[in-house]
Amino acid sequence: MIKECSMKIDPKGKELARHGSPSFPCACYHTTSRQGDVSWHWHEEMEVIYMNKGSVQCAVGDRRFLLCEGDAVFINSGIPHALFQRRGDSYDEHDIVFHPRLIYGEMGSVYYEKYLLPLLRCSALPGQKLSAEIPWQKEAAFQIRRAVSCFLEEESLPEFVVRDALSALCGLLWKEHQDKIKPAVLKPPASMERMQKMLDYFHSHYQEPVTLEDLSSQVNLCKRECQRIFKTVLGLTPSQYFEQYRLSIAVSLLLNTQESIMEISGACGFQSPSYFAKLFRNRYGMTPSRFRTSQTAPVTLS
User: Fold this and answer.
1) Which of 56, 60, 268, 302 is the most exposed place for a label (fewest CB within 10 A)?
2) CATH code for the structural domain at 190-294
3) Model confidence at 196, in pLDDT bands (50, 70, 90)?
4) Rounded Cα–Cα distance for residues 19 and 42 (Å)
């Protein structure tokens, strides 16, 4: 069964939703451009996205992918990611979020030790765009579409087909990147740990003014080093991340509440309603008020 996207995250940016069930840890979601941007978040599960139509900008760590109809993307466990709608463009996509144990079964199995653990811990593979121009990527995108179709249609033995398709995907990724994922990197890089500490602080205080000094004090580093970590991990400056995150929260409030523009501006930590309106217009090509009235139904971000 396909679920509409609805995301709740903790102060660390980690998604709180349980995807699937303990016996089948896998779920499929549907997202369209009516929902605006999908804000930065992360989860322990792997994720794959298949573009049905339109185009959208996908951010995975410091990597940026333009996804168009027929493209797909793989997102590794624990990697911050987001979707950003392009001005004037619409999009429609399905994504599957699944725990790796769906593939490896039990810890200690050959699937876990030889394939999934190295893949999970591969710092060189935060994500991978999959397009039709490259044969192995075309096959990987096909396997994602095959898995999605099991949630859309009445399939015989759907759990087997989903598991088989996602296993084939992981096998293709391992085969293509095996030179990068041996041996497995068991400890996350220090920059990622520091990045998560800084994001923890910002997500807990985004409604307030947050400075670079505030972030640097959380990790005992100089401001310049904090900026370098943001650029290395997310490909953004701290101020760019603050702006994107606050705007994504504002979109959700515009679509799902009756709060005034002034109230939303304050709730998201913007300096003033006029500054909020300026940033919003630059990002979405219209004012917050016009954006709200242009939507036909309330939805939530995924």
Assistant:
1) 268
2) 1.10.10.60
3) confident
4) 13
Q: Which residues pair with 97 in a beta bridge?
A: 27, 47
Give the pLDDT confidence score for residue 86 in this predicted structure: 84
The residue whose two tokens read 């217009």 is 281
Cα separation, 199 vs 201, in Å, equals: 5
Res. 296: pLDDT tops 50: no
Retrieve residue 293's tokens: 């009235």
Compute the distance between CA of residue 215 and CA of residue 199 in angstroms, rounded to an integer.
8
φ and ψ of 182, to 5 deg: -120, 125
Q: Rounded to the nearest 10 degrees, what angle do helices 223-233 and 190-205 cross at?
A: 100
Q: What pLDDT is recorded for position 282?
A: 87
Ranges in the chain annotated CATH 1.10.10.60: 190-294
Distance of CA 69 to the CA centre of its chain: 18
User: What pLDDT was estimated at residue 234?
Assistant: 80
Report the topology of domain 2-177.
Jelly Rolls (2.60.120)
pLDDT value at residue 291: 85
For residue 203, the model assigns a pLDDT of: 87
| Pair 232, 194: CB distance under 8 Å | no
Higher confidence at residue 253 or residue 296? 253
Nearest to 301 by CA among 83, 109, 98: 83
- Pair type for strands 72-75 and 127-130: antiparallel
The string of pLDDT tens digits covering residues 219-230 is 999 999 999 988
